Amino acid sequence: MSEGRRVTSADVAREAGVSRATVSYVLNGVPHQKIPEATRQRVWDAAARLGYAPSAAARALRTGRSEIVLGLLPDWPIEHVLGRLIQQLTNAFAENGLTFVVHSSAHPGRPLRDIWKAMTPAAVLALQEFDDLEAEAMRAAGIEVVMAMHGSVRGEPRPPLVSEHPIGALQARHLAAPHRRLGYAYPDLPGLDVLAQPRLDGVRKVCAELDMPEPDVRTVPLDAVGAAEAVKGWLAADPPVTGICAFNDNVALAVLAGLSHLGLRAPRDLAVIGVDDITGASLAQPPLTTVVRDTDAIARGLARRVVDTLGGKEIPAEPLRDGLLLRVRESA
Amino acid sequence: MSEGRRVTSADVAREAGVSRATVSYVLNGVPHQKIPEATRQRVWDAAARLGYAPSAAARALRTGRSEIVLGLLPDWPIEHVLGRLIQQLTNAFAENGLTFVVHSSAHPGRPLRDIWKAMTPAAVLALQEFDDLEAEAMRAAGIEVVMAMHGSVRGEPRPPLVSEHPIGALQARHLAAPHRRLGYAYPDLPGLDVLAQPRLDGVRKVCAELDMPEPDVRTVPLDAVGAAEAVKGWLAADPPVTGICAFNDNVALAVLAGLSHLGLRAPRDLAVIGVDDITGASLAQPPLTTVVRDTDAIARGLARRVVDTLGGKEIPAEPLRDGLLLRVRESA
DNA sequence: TCGATTCACTTACGCGTGCCAGTTGAACGA
DNA sequence: TCGTTCAACTGGCACGCGTAAGTGAATCGA
C-alpha cells in the first residue's frame, strides 16, 4: 500500500469521516471536549487501520519541545553496569512515552550546544558532571536538566541524584569485622573522580565511626606491575593494611594481579572487595567479593524523576535510594 | 538575553537586512543562487552574532527527514568494545554533521516501529540482526537501512558489513603452530550466535586449510564449575584438544577459571586465546592472549558507509576492512 | 414559542523551514 | 528609446500538528 507517503492525521480524519481537529482531540485524549464514545471508537479504528503514527517533527515544531530525553554519556569507558543502565533507562522512559537517546559528549565533534539546540529534547539527563553555563543555557531554552552525578547549577551545590557514598560504606563495613586497617584502591583515570571521591568518603566515614585509622589511599593502575607497587605500599604501612576497598571490579582485579605478581594471595595476605560484579569478578582467582547496585531501580527512579519534573511536580532534592547487594565470594 | 524565545532564521534575516529566503540559501550553501560574497558574509555574521541554530524539528518537517542516525543496540550486554564503538560512532557521525543516537531495542516497551516512525531518522544502523519486514517498512518510509551484522533483506542475503570471520581465523592461525587440535569455546547466550557462528566458521576454515581436524566446539557457561566441565571434555577428546579459541575474553576467562578449578593452568595444559582485550584480560592469571579489532576504523567505516549511502552513492557490498591486532600475552 | 445553553464538531492559524516562482532594478544591445 | 537579459534578491506556500475560537443543530426551561 501507501508507497512512500506517510500517513497523516488528515488521512485518519478522512477515513473516520471527521475533521482533523477531532482526530487530534481523540488521539490525545483532550479532556474538555465532549466527544461521544462512538466517534472516539471510529477514530481509534481508523488510526489503527492506517497504521498512523504522529510525526514527532511536526509535534515538536508545534509544541516547541520533543518527547526525547537526551542522555549525556560520560567519557570514561562504558562497561557492563553503565551499558545495562542505558538499556534500562531506555525501557523505563519508553514506559512513560519518552524516547531515551544517548549521546557521547566525550570528544565533541560539534559543540554540545548544537546538539541540544537542534533536537530540543524535553529533558537532558547528564550521566556525568557537566558545565554549569551549559546547564543554565538549557534551562533558559526551556529544557529540564537532571543530573545523575554530582553537579551544581549556578553555584548552589545540590546533592547527586545517585549517591555513591553508601557503596564505599558497605565495602568498609564488610571488611571492618576482621580488618583493623583499610586501604582504598583509587582508579587511575582522572574523569572517575566524581565517582571515586564519594565512594572513598563513604569508606572514610565508616572508618571514623568504628574508631579505625584513616584508610590508606593509593592509586592503582590497571596492570599487574603497577598494582604490585601499591600492594607493597599497603603491606609496608604502619599499621599494615589488611583489607582493600577497590573503586570497582577492574581495579580490584588489578590488586589481585598485583598480589599474584608478588606471590601473594587474597584474602590471606590482603582482602579485596570490588564494585559492579562484572563477569570477570566471579571468574577471578580467587573469586571477587563485590558490591552490586540495583541499576534497574536507579533507571526507574531516574526516569520517574524526569517524568515528574516534566509534569511540573516539585521534586525532593534527596538522592534516589537504590538497593545495594553484597555478593560475598572468596576475596574478602 | 532573549528570554525563552528561540532565534529563528527570520531574526537572522532582520539582523542582516535581507529576506528569510536569502538567509536560507546562504546558510545551506544552495549552489544555483547568485549571491555576492558581501551579502553572504553579512548573513554569516548575523547568524553567528545571534547564535542561530536551525530547528531540527522544522527542518525535519519540511524535508521529511531528520539528521539523526538511529543506532539499534543489540540485547546482549554492552561491554567494553561495544561501548567504545558507540562513542566512536557518535564522533564519526558528528564529523559528518549527523547526530548519532542509540536506542536499545532489547525489550521494547514500545514497538520499534513507533520509535523510527516518530523520529524519522535519515538512516538506521542496526548493530544487531533484525526483522526483515521491519527493514522493508523503513525502506518504504524512505529511511536508509544499514546493517552492521548479518542480515538479509527480502530474502536476498547480503554479507555482513563488519565481518567476524577473520577474528576466528586469526585465533586459529596463532594457535595452529604448536597445537594440532583446536577447541572452540562457544558463548552461553543465544543472542550471540550472529557473532559466534561466523567467528567459529573462521576457525573451521583455517583448520581445514591446515589439514587439522574439525574444532571441538563446546558451550562454556560463565562460571568456573560449568567451564571446568567443558575443559574436561576437551582434554578427554581424541585426539585431545590443546588450544582453545574463545568467543571473547569473558568466555576465555571462564575457560581459565575452569582450568584453575581443575588444578590446571594455561598454556601448559590448554592454551587459550580470547577476543576484545577487556581490562580483565591483561590482569588474568595467566595474562590472556587476545585479538583486538580496530573499532575506530569500524566506526569511521560504518559512518562513511551511511553518509555515502545518504549521498546517493552506490556502495560496494563488500565488508569493511578493519585492522586486527593479535595481543600476545601468556595464555597462548 | 423562543432565547439560552449544551453538544459535537469544524475552521483556521501558526510553529520554523526549504525552495519554487516570481519581482526588482541595473546593464546592455539595437 | 525601449525591450531583453541577468544578477540579486523576495513573497509565499507546504510540511503535520495542537488548539483557540467559532458554528449549526439539538435540547431545555419558562
Brief descriptors of the model:
3 domains; 332 residues; alpha/beta; homodimer; 434 Repressor (Amino-terminal Domain); Rossmann fold; four-stranded parallel sheet; 16% strand; 12 strands; elongated; DNA-binding; six-stranded mixed sheet
Write a concise synopsis of the structure shown.
The structure is a homodimer of 332-residue chains. With 332 residues, the first copy, chain A, is an alpha/beta fold.
- pLDDT under 50 segments of chain A (min length 5)? none
What composes the largest sheet of chain A?
6 strands, mixed
Largest interface: A-B, 67 and 69 residues
Query: Per DSSP, what share of the residues of chain A sits in E-state strands of 2 or more residues?
Result: 15-25%
Might you state the CATH topology name of the largest domain in chain A? Rossmann fold
Q: Tell me the quaternary state.
A: homodimer
Return the domain count of chain A. 3
Radius of gyration of chain A: 26 Å
Structural class of chain A: alpha/beta
Q: How many beta strands in the DSSP annotation of chain A?
A: 12
3D structure, described in words:
The structure is a homodimer. With about 325 residues, chain A is an alpha/beta fold. Chain A folds into three domains: about 10-55, 434 Repressor (Amino-terminal Domain), CATH 1.10.260; about 65-160 and about 295-320, Response regulator (Rossmann fold); about 165-295, Response regulator (Rossmann fold), CATH 3.40.50. Chain A is built from 13 helices and twelve strands. Chain A has helices at about 10-15, 20-30, 35-50, 55-65, 80-95, 110-120, 130-140, 165-175, 195-210, 225-235, 250-260, 280-285, 295-310; strands spanning about 70-75, 100-105, 125, 145, 150-155, 155-160, 180-185, 215-220, 245, 270-275, 290-295, 325. Chain A has a six-stranded mixed β-sheet, with helices on both faces. A four-stranded parallel β-sheet of chain A has the order 2-1-3-4, with helices on both faces. In chain A, strand 5 (about 150-155) and strand 6 form a beta hairpin. In chain A, helix 1 (about 10-15) packs across helix 2. The longest helix of chain A has 17 residues, at about 195-210. The termini of chain A are far apart. The mean pLDDT of chain A is about 85. Chains A and B meet through helix 4, helix 5, strand 2, helix 6 and helix 11 of A and helix 4, helix 5, strand 2, helix 6 and helix 11 of B. The structure holds a DNA duplex (30 and 30 nucleotides).
